[in-house]
Amino acid sequence: MTADAGGTSLVRVACPHDCPDTCAMLVTVGNGRALAVRGDPDHPFTRGGLCVKVNNYEKRVYSADRLLYPMRRSGPKGSGRFERITWDQALATIKQRWSNIIEESGPAAILPYSYLGTEGILNGLNAGDAFFNRLGATISERTFCDSASCTAYFMTIGPSPGMDPESFKYSKYIILWACNTISTNLHHWPFIAEARQNGAKLVVIDPVRTRTAREADWHIPIRPGTDAALALGMMHVIINEDLVDRDYVAQYTVGFDELKQRAGSYTPELVSSITGIPADDIRTLAREYATTQPSVIRIGVAIERHAGGGQTVRATACLPALVGAWRRIGGGMLQLPIWAFPVKWENLMRPDWITSGTRVLNQWRLGAALMQEEPLDPPIRSLFVYNSNPVVVSPEQQKIVKGLEREDLFTVVSEQFLTDTAQYADIVLPATTQLEQFDIMFSWGHLYLTLNQKAIEPLGEAVPNTELFRRLARTMGLDDPHWIRNDEDMALDALDWTHPAMQGITMDLLKQKGWARLAVGTPETYLPHAEGNFLTPSGKCEFKASMAAGGNFVLPLFRQGSNEFQPGDPVDPLPAYTPSREKAPMATSGRYPLNVISPKSHAFLNSSYGNLPAQLHHAGEQVVLVNPADARARNVGDGSPVRIFNDRGSVEAVAKVTEDVMPGVIVAPMGYWRSLSRGGATVNALNPASYADFGRAPVFSDTLAEMVVAGAAMAAE
Ligand SMILES: Nc1nc2c(c(=O)[nH]1)N[C@H]1C(S)=C(S)[C@@H](COP(=O)(O)OP(=O)(O)OC[C@H]3O[C@@H](n4cnc5c(=O)[nH]c(N)nc54)[C@H](O)[C@@H]3O)O[C@H]1N2
Ligand SMILES: Nc1nc2c(c(=O)[nH]1)N[C@H]1C(S)=C(S)[C@@H](COP(=O)(O)OP(=O)(O)OC[C@H]3O[C@@H](n4cnc5c(=O)[nH]c(N)nc54)[C@H](O)[C@@H]3O)O[C@H]1N2
Ligand code: SF4
Ligand SMILES: [Mo]
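Structure tokens predicted for Molybdopterin oxidoreductase (717 residues):
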């Protein structure tokens, strides 16, 4: 903390959100109150700016809607009626209910549910794992984001950070593939802009002309879920026209002959019929990508969101090795540089406390599990939600709400706001914001470790997640030394401070400066795969993946989960194109011809900020983007209220008729709150709970629906 003349001081914090940018922030504090936040101008990635979501973070902190005290339900489930109680009363109720449940049904009847409301290493993804593992609760397998991508990337390249995002400034050909950088990864944009000033070409592959696509040199609209075919088509051209870096392929890859054979059938004409991209454009893209070196591919998370999402990432991850892009600074591929951070997940999560045979339930199954659709023994009798808002962010919204209405379900939600999920709680526990807590942050979008120092005292009786689980442990009679550590001790335990990447980084340095670059070289020198050194079993880039044969591959530990591939699973060792799952059966019946995609909102962070005035004002009412041809066919005008529906549910929104979206696709951005939207539903009412091919990833781009003008709905159905 530094004091200045005006009686205020500056505290160094980190943006808490699940966003690749992990901005270093400066908070101005006066009289114990946070007055303003801004980006740290000295941080090479943050560069002084924040985004539209967070640049008024103090308004989130001091919002009149903040939950500041424990509460218990005082009306019917979901009525939103609560009365204030003390922490002691809340904990005593939890103890009594859980003790009964454990005695009658065993601890597996308790289901934790969490994701990344905050991304801090201490308070984030794994904050409650040790507690619930010790208790013996059902393990919640978290595969919200990037799980197919990670599996595919590990199979091909291994857990390597890949490219330094800052090295993009040295690229000559940049493909943003299913990634809306200007909305979702804003602070990466200046590096791309710098490359373009130096002559680089920017290509965006996206069904939608997004903010990012509008800025590109070349926007290639593609049918959702067909990207693997495009990647295979590019390989076809690259191999046929002898644009392969043969020396790189011979030395540092395995399976070229098989890949060549696989790509052989993906002629530009066939790929054009699958993707909707003209064959000549596919040829041009392949040629330019191969010959304009260094070239780089940045994949977005959205690339995995359909039946063949994993194999799509396999296909894209083969491309840089095929053309030798890894040889030069500014070349290669960017998935998540998170793998560079030496986090000791096991110290946070305590997998050693999991008893063998403990039940694992994937989080997409929440609705089905609460409704006993797949009979569970024991059934879920209690749900504990923190860092997440499943009613909005998980598919099968209707089913989840129905499940939460169960009178016999004991639901506890730790939250900053009374979200669509917290509305259904029996007990609500107040959570601090990032300014009220201590944490330390990795990043999945750059190579800097960031410390978050407490800037103000907690408001009301809110507590950080670390303290929440200390209190719960004490309440449930758990007295392991694990629960005695304070936050700073936890941070010291959570990282391998002797790891080469941590050279020169100490807690003192972080306290002083706020952040530090990992010791992995500079953007000018970091070149991990110029000579192979892939982190796969063979040490090479595996076009033909040896891991496809194994039943021993486990989802990255920090997500918690079970084996990725079971022995005997038919996993294609070569990259493949898998058609969308919903297309075939539903489209032939013709009932649901429109492919719904639900990308991120520019002004919300998942569902966070979906209730706050400035961001809501920016986003406007729940909207759906539709191409003029599809709109005309349904008598939908610009601004018409419409209803989008399929067999799973129905959503009301305002239509925006625009050429920005390709025909046959409609875009319903995610993050709007159900309780604040007309029709009382948001896009996850339409989405299925099925998995992609790898990593039990979601399939948010593999959903079909129909659209009608609201009110005309009954006649059309
Ligand atoms: N403003 C904002 N920023 C965020 C978030 C947020 O909610 N709001 N969330 C954060 C999180 S958790 C994540 S995971 C990241 C996600 O970051 P991104 O992956 O960039 O996010 P999305 O907006 O989901 O998808 C990116 C683009 O993919 C396109 N798309 C959808 N399906 C397909 C497809 O099958 N093929 C192709 N080629 N394109 C497709 C969409 O039209 C969209 O423009 O963003 C992070 N940053
Ligand atoms: N249709 C569709 N669905 C999607 C996606 C999509 O693109 N389309 N994206 C998916 C992806 S990529 C992701 S990552 C997930 C995101 O899913 P979530 O991580 O669940 O995201 P949020 O909606 O931001 O909900 C987080 C909640 O945690 C609360 N919170 C914040 N900080 C704290 C804290 O310190 N303690 C506690 N106890 N609570 C806190 C916030 O107030 C917020 O309500 O959504 C997924 N769902
Ligand atoms: S949400 Fe992302 S871009 Fe916005 S301040 Fe946080 S880290 Fe930076
Ligand atoms: Mo995500």
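Residues 18, 115-118, 123, 144-145, 301, 386-389, 392-393, 414-417, 419, 431, 465, 598-600, 605-608, 670, 683-684, 687, 700 surround MGD (ligand 2) (CB under 6 Å).
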